[in-house]
Records
---
Amino acid sequence: MKATTLLPRLSKTLLTPPVPISITIYPRPSNLTLKSRTFVSSSTLNPLQTLTASRILPYPSSVLYNLITDIPSYPTFLPFCTSATISSTSQADPTHHKRWPRTADLRIGWGAYNESFRSRIYCLPYHTLEACAGSAQTSIPSSQLPHYPDSHTPEADKDTQQQQSSRQQLFTSLLTRWTLSEFPFKPLPSDGRSPQEGAAETNPSHPRTEVSLVIEAQFASAVYSALSQAAAPKVAGMMIEAFEKRAREVLGKGHGVEGAGHEENKGRPVSSGGVVGEEGARSWNKSH
């Protein structure tokens, strides 16, 4: 075919307008739902567990508080505590002029668990002691803790928390709170009269103290959290029962419901550091 014949055909093809294309857009149905993946937060898998226990003991709050702040003695009576040392102390408090624990290193041994961690200690003298580990924070207002000037300053705990994060695998948060509430108690007179009828000289009142223990723990993994579900609820009761036994060993019978034994607690020695020593209690018993 000659080139002169192709030229008219080619020009006709190029000049032909394109065929229009129709596109229809349909709206999305209103009942269409998009599926998305839901991620479970760590707080759901590892919930914060709160354990509580309390006892009313026949002793003044001051001597009981001294036993609680005697942290190095914990391994001798507290379950699962295998080691405890005070690593730093507070400034002297303005009322009693005593220095109290500020940080403590403890080791917990329970079955396959064997872990050491550092706790930040906050003492409201003769009323509350809080031990905070991991991300736990004290609930005591800073105005009541002048002997801990950096108690509510995040930068002050940065070094302690960094040390914990490098070795702490069991807990992400652990708060232990001991609270003491003293109240007067008047035992029943031996002659059978009511406490109000008995003479003050023969039926004096004696202080008793309610000891409350609260533990708030969040485990580092869902496995630890699940394994602890059966045993954890018993821990607070075991700890306060062990503390009651410790108080009885160091302080004697106290003044029970019938008032027995209250005489033997008069004049018990208290060391200058605010801790009632077990040896001091035993030597007092021998001399009386």
---
Amino acid sequence: MAVPTRKIDVHHHIIPDFFRESLADLNLPAKILFPQWSPEASLAFMDQHHIDTAIFSLSAPGAGIAGGHDQVRALVRKWNDYAFELRAAHPGRFGFFAALPGLEDRDGAVAEIRYALDDLGADGITLFTSYGGQYLGAKVFEPIWAELDKYHAVIHVHPNHSFSAPFTTPFLPQPLIDYPHETARAASDLVLSGRKGQFPNCKIILSHAGGTLPYLADRISVLSQTIFTGILDDQSPRGDSIMEDLKSFYFDLALGGSAIVLDLLLKWALPSHVLYGSDFPFAGTAAERFTESLEEYQMNDDARELCYRGNALSLFPRYGAHDQKLQSPHSHD
């Protein structure tokens, strides 16, 4: 029996007790559910599915709903410090994408980027697909991207609730259909606004196999240059550059391990830009089902090694050595 290829999980969430408690009094809609989580639960899932390292992130709706700027900044800082300590306690097993306040709080977001990357040595930054009714390519977010570009940062983009698709039926919770569309909208906005090309040092991972982006990529590229030419401005890419920019994203496979999704994504995406992701613990048993489906999918050994581990190591080389001590580049008190 072949030895299973070890994985690096770039889409793995944590819900510390203090975070759950901080949102308990906000009267959140019933459709926003926070599953039970513990470090031990993550480790058990990882061992079961041959995952060496899980890189944590904060899932939607994020900390931005916790109140005013001061409350949100404090909650984000506490989450980042907690993730740092958890990584330090489990060298090689855990990493983290740092959380940020909402990007509308530009000063707070920039300060947390600097703290997370300089002081904590975070593996990257989590962004959501939209903030305050604007997608990530909006010009108002340009200073955020400039800061991230300066650090050559890895950014994990996670969908959040669409501001344009209100909850209308109990049969269609937004994660079912709208989240994949939100990912495609945010990615397309980054490309067509020119923001993706403007800040080429940013390495952006899209959740859930890029949502509906791979399916819509040709449509986006062709129609934006034929029927809808008026949407492009002086910063927008033209010609083949649109498709090149769409393909320049990285794609995690959280909830995307089915054969029909893999057939499309692996044919369209750059082979070096596909990464394993589980969506634990929010995906529940679905995380196991999609991981098992991925493992059953016919793929040559080299491609599987890249998808499971090799491509992630190109972004996070520190996890290539299991026994190394993962320390912050600066002291952290």
